[in-house]
Amino acid sequence: MAGVPVNIDSARFVENAYFIKTREEGYADKTILEIAREMFSYADSMTMSAKKDGLVNMGGFIATNKEDWYEGAKLFCIPFEGFLTYGGMNGRDMDALAVGLRENCDFDMVETRIKQVQYLADKLDEYGIPYQRPAGGHAIFVDADKILTNVPKEEFPAQTLTCELYLEAGIRACEIGYMLADRDPVTRENRFGGLDFVRLCIPRRVYTNNHMDVIAAALKNVYDRRDTIKHGVRITWEAELMRHFTVQLERIK
To answer: Per-residue pLDDT for 1 more than 70?
Structure first.
């Protein structure tokens, strides 16, 4: 619609550019950087969690071509981050981010990591473990509802599977499902209508295919004993907003 501002969530802009290059007509000969520049040319603003495609340990930024938006955002920096010239990210991290953004636009680099996700998907296919298909660019989304079929939805199957995977092999995954969906803002009831996934997110420049083998084997071990897992977890404390970051749970026996 004409006149509607466009904001791009840029955390995974590189893998989106990769898929455009490899799948869309007319882009095969363009570089990742050229495609990214075209993507952002259509937007009024962008947000960036730099721990993803920025390849840094911490930080992020926003950018906009609208001066009034910039001035408004600048006011929030003062109470939350400090003034523009001395708050927020330090110079070392900004330097690392500048390097990371450029390095991650290298086609061979991003292709290697995206193919690593496909490698993990192939291992899960071998073990018969259900996940959302096709495999994505940065993660596998395991279908917890189809694995922990004995765990009632009210006991959060995906969150339970996340815990089981950590106990099995120290693998830190993330629930993307009923816990993250939070409560209905009016009734305050938990929302169980969507999908219940465990996200296996693969960090860049960190893991090898041997690590993928360990993840797949650990998930297979949990999958093989899935019928013995009959209960999940209950909430003992939760924040009013975005509870999944800080929620406290206990196991149901």
So the answer is: no
